[in-house]
Design goal:
eight-stranded parallel β-sheet, globular, alpha/beta, Glutaconate Coenzyme A-transferase, eight-stranded mixed β-sheet, 16 helices
């Protein structure tokens, strides 16, 4: 039987695919821009027939149809590996939950730990002449998801880019159970907000630490975007990329000829990533591009792999930092904001790298004038999750400076962290440090 004949034999409608979901099932939607689209809508249309269906996804880019039905909370549960604004809204609606993880462990979770999946669905690029459906910019853990699913369904989207070069970036027609030809929706767009003055100052402090030939990992958000823009306008050369999330900033830097990966000790000449989301220029850039290497997250985020790359520069955001040097990048109190993701993986991996540095960046304060609150706090309030422990934190950067915490005692840390806090909060932070017995009498005030 030819691949085309096998394709036709497995081709079904979204409505027929939806009928395979039963009450009580675990259903996996994939990841980011690869989430199910057509089958999701078809499942929502038969919502009144279902109860206790547990969906799983992550980095959700649009509101799933199953979460928009009138009585969704009585029928469905949404479980997210990493929260976006959409996931936070589902949590606020009362039937969404976060699933804690270190992102590098996610393929192993699927193969060893999570409940068996009844139905797994994700969007893919059209089948190629060899019979393969490419996962697009989210190789991440998708094959592991299918490995743990009873029914494997791919949803073809002609707009999905074909991402090359790594491991488990595609699945063969012989390995899937059913094929749905979707309506080919455009991929979700993720633009970056224009950097403000604080973002630009933080970017300046970090960029001056980056040597020629360094390898970059950038998180998502205003500050990493500002850093990317500044690198694109710099005289740096021979940079490499090894990151979990591929974002527009990398495309802009590469367009200036600054990225070539020539100094990477592994995957030389390749920009390695686990998943990507951005504007159309990103999807166009990674499509059939041998320079862009789509790989599984247990490779991209493994600290042991990251540590093999010299001068690795990891740059990520945070929500708060306390006077011990603990970092929260995912919650404030009991409010879930995002997730651990790969931040801890890269904090550890960058430090293993010869010449490597991990930068956690944040604004010193937030809120309107007169209602401003410090992002540097004495200790975290109950419910706030520690993403990076004090023993792993390397560099901290705000608009007021940058500090390296490695080798510092508690009183040295308190002094250094307060020195990059907003000036309006420093006196109170000193008093708090004294009460916590981490302030030395001879410390500077």
């Amino acid at each position: 039987m030819s691949f085309v004949e096998e394709y036709q034999n497995k081709l079904i409608s979204a409505a027929d695919a939806a009928k395979m979901v039963k009450s009580g099932d675990w259903v996996d939607y994939g990841w980011c821009v690869g989430h199910s689209y057509a089958v999701d809508k078809a499942i929502a249309e038969r919502a009144n027939e279902l109860t206790d269906v547990k969906f799983r996804g992550g980095v959700t880019m649009w509101m799933p149809a199953v979460c928009q039905v009138e009585d969704a909370a009585d029928r469905f549960t949404w479980n997210s590996w990493h929260c976006t604004g959409v996931d936070r809204k589902i949590i606020d609606m009362g039937f969404g939950f976060y699933s804690p993880m270190r992102y590098s462990e996610l393929p192993r979770f699927y193969r060893e730990s999570v409940e068996p999946i009844a139905v797994a669905i994700c969007q893919v690029a059209p089948m190629d002449k060899h019979g393969y459906f490419n996962f697009g910019p989210q190789a991440s853990h998708q094959m592991a998801t299918f490995d743990n699913s009873k029914i494997k369904i791919v949803e073809v989207n002609e707009n999905m880019p074909r991402c090359l070069g790594g491991t488990e970036e595609a699945i063969h027609v012989s390995q899937v159970d059913f094929i749905v030809e979707g309506p080919n929706p455009p991929l979700a767009q993720l633009g970056a907000a224009a950097p403000n003055e604080v973002d630009q100052r933080v970017a300046q402090l970090i960029v001056e630490e980056i040597p020629n030939g360094a390898c970059l990992q950038l998180g998502i958000g205003g500050m990493p975007n500002a850093i990317g823009m500044m690198i694109a306008d710099s005289d740096l050369k021979d940079l490499g990329v090894h990151t979990e999330m591929y974002v527009d900033a990398f495309v802009d830097i590469a367009a200036k000829g600054i990225i070539n990966g020539s100094k990477k000790s592994i995957d030389r000449g390749r920009q390695t990533f686990a998943f990507g989301a951005g504007t159309q220029k990103l999807y166009d850039y990674v499509n059939d591009n041998p320079e862009a290497m789509s790989a599984t997250v247990d490779y991209t985020n493994d600290p042991r792999v990251i540590g093999q790359i010299d001068n690795f520069m990891s740059i990520n955001n945070a929500v708060e930092v306390d006077l011990f040097g603990q970092v929260s990048a995912e919650s404030t109190g009991f409010k879930q904001i995002s997730g651990t993701g790969g931040q801890l993986d890269f904090v550890m991996g960058a430090y293993y790298s010869k010449g490597g540095k991990s930068f956690i960046c944040l604004s010193s304060a937030y809120g309107k004038t007169g209602e401003m609150k410090s992002r540097v706090v004495p200790t975290f309030v109950p419910g706030t999750i520690t993403t990076d422990t004090r023993t792993t934190t390397h560099w901290l950067v705000t608009e007021y400076g940058k500090i390296c915490l490695k080798g510092m005692s508690t009183w040295q840390r308190a002094e250094a962290i307060i020195s990059i806090a907003h000036p309006d909060f420093r006196d109170q932070l000193i008093k708090d440090a004294e009460d916590m017995k981490i302030w030395r009498r001879s410390n500077k005030r």
